[in-house]
Amino acid sequence: MNFDSIITIAAFGVYLIFMICIGMYFMGKSRTTTDYFLGGRKLGSWVTSMSAQASDMSGWLLMGLPGAAYLSGISAGWIAIGLAVGTYLNWLLVAKPLRQYTKVANDAITLPQFFKNRFQDESGMISVIAAVFILVFFLFYTASGFVSCAKLFSSVFGIPYLVSLLVGAAVVISYTFAGGFFAVCWTDFFQGLLMFFCVIAVPSIAIGSLGGPSDFLAQVEAFNPNFLNMFVDGETNTPYTVLGIVSLLAWGLGYFGQPHILVRFMGISSPSAIKKSRRIASIWVLISLTAAVLIGVSGRMFLGDGLLVTAGNEATIYINMVSRIFPVFIAGIFLSAILAAIMSTADSQLLVTASAITEDFYHNKIRPNASPSELMWVSRICVIAVALIAVFIATNQNSTVLGLVEYAWAGFGSAFGPLVLCSLFWRRTNKYGAYAGIIVGGVVDLVWAQLSGGIFELYEIVPGFVCGLIAIFVVSLLTPAPSKAVTDQFDSYRTCEE
Q1: What is the DSSP letter of 255?
Q2: Domain range spanning residue 120?
Q3: Angle, nearest 10°, between helix axes 274-303 and 161-209?
Q4: Helix intervals (H) in 158-273
Q5: Number of separate domains in the chain
Q6: Where residue 286 sits, what CATH number does that domain have?
Q7: Phi-psi region at 284: left, alpha or beta (left = phi > 0; alpha = psi -120 to 50)
Q8: Is residue 142 part of a domain?
Q9: At what angle are helices 96-104 and 259-267 packed, to 10 degrees?
Q10: Which helix (H) or strand (E) holds 114?
Q11: 362 inside domain
Q12: Could you say which DSSP state residue 460 is in?
């Protein structure tokens, strides 16, 4: 191992130790599952917004999206546009109502629990069904983070993929296991700041080294004019179809159903803090996504076509640029931003999955009288168990970060997105419609993803979301109206401020 590698490892080590220390600090502050999974609803605006967006973006902000832009040019930005719009609408439409309603609905601390309490489903089956979908899709989502982490370590240090995978997973598990929601949100806060700084700095320096914006654009134009055309895929030089553009923009639909993002709304200190959080989150997302696309395009000019030799290697564009641009220790800090992106998402997903298993399976169906101490330890065991399964999925080195994220994102958007919106805004929604929405949306998404050709090239979130929404409306109208207790609760939640 050479001196440069030692210095880079030192930079990584400082970062990782800092994250673990945060987890240890908050270990004694989580005494109940409400604390462990929701932070006692005590988060401020800055921590809520930065945590939500950091957990949202995952490793694909610095690997998946720049990699797509490296191949296709600015047309990769259609995803970014969809996500930026989706982020804003989610904060605008869902954040405050969900914070209020989960408090009114018997202080629900998980999304499945909210569905159960919202529709007063005494059987508890709606929370079980929702928890099953969370478990299935988050296994793939968490696996995507571990894949990103493994590729980072193996690319930078030449460490075998499997060893890299285990090291990254061990750090995420350690602080999530220890500190729960507080640790996750505070680590996400610092990780979000680091990601924001790095994602702006890298393309800015690269474009400057290429002669500034004018020279950079001229070089891109000379290389491939389609790299600057939003309506043409720069990789294949073929125009996007309406179907293709809709598919990319449709990523924005996914926000309404992402449990690891929605739980941030539930944990904010008060509904009045949401407006400030929305502004912070929207600015962060808009700038970060734009910069991520620029990393890919500037990287193609800065590094050439060298990353095309190995399939899937385009995802390392940020890593390669950082290694070329910065001195070794600074490069180590900038590479830690990838760890930040990965961990800020993986930790949230582990926690939400553990909460679904603990509260909606174990507490709801197996041990209704379990003590707070017992539930805390079950929660921590679930964190480890889910992580190990995700690690197993991630052992497939050929998995693409964007591919895994794409699959899980659509699944949540289809299964939960329509129901979240209807639960908050349509008084007539009943539990039968809720059952239908989750099952139809989730199943349509899963089936559609396995088909190809023609209309089936449409991103599965679109048919999944639409079919789930239709199912909720049709079944709710064909079955008995919700009880007076349910509608009274609906009428009261909008005036709740705590």
Answers
A1: G
A2: 3-398
A3: 80
A4: 161-209, 213-223, 242-249, 259-267
A5: 1
A6: 1.20.1730.10
A7: alpha
A8: yes
A9: 70
A10: helix 111-118
A11: yes
A12: T
Here the tokens at position 203 are 């393309």
Instruction: Write out the two tokens for 71.
Output: 């191949």
Cα 21 from Cα 40, distance rounded (Å): 21
Could you tell me if residue 87 is inside a domain?
Answer: yes
> In 210-327, which ranges are continuous DSSP H helix?
213-223, 242-249, 259-267, 274-303, 317-325
CA Rg, the chain, in Å? Answer: 22
Q: Tokens for 432? A: 């039968």
Residue type present at position 440: V
Amino acid letter for position 491: D
Distances in whole angstroms, Cα of residue 42 to Cα of each of 29, 353, 496: 12, 21, 16
Tokens coding 426: 């349509």
Length of the chain: 498
List average pLDDT for each run of 10 residues in the chain, which is 498 residues long: 74 78 68 58 76 74 87 92 94 94 87 93 89 84 78 76 82 69 72 86 94 94 93 92 92 91 84 88 93 94 79 80 87 80 74 81 83 81 85 76 76 95 96 96 93 89 97 97 94 75
Burial (CB < 10 A; 0-12, 13-18, 19+), residue 148, is buried
Instruction: Please state, in angstroms and rounded to a whole number, the distance separating the CA atoms of residues 404 and 417.
Output: 19
* Cβ–Cβ under 8 Å, residues 348 and 6: no
- Is the Cβ–Cβ distance between 299 and 321 less than 8 Å? yes
Q: What is the pLDDT of residue 41?
A: 65
Q: Give the predicted TM-score (pTM) of the model.
A: 0.86
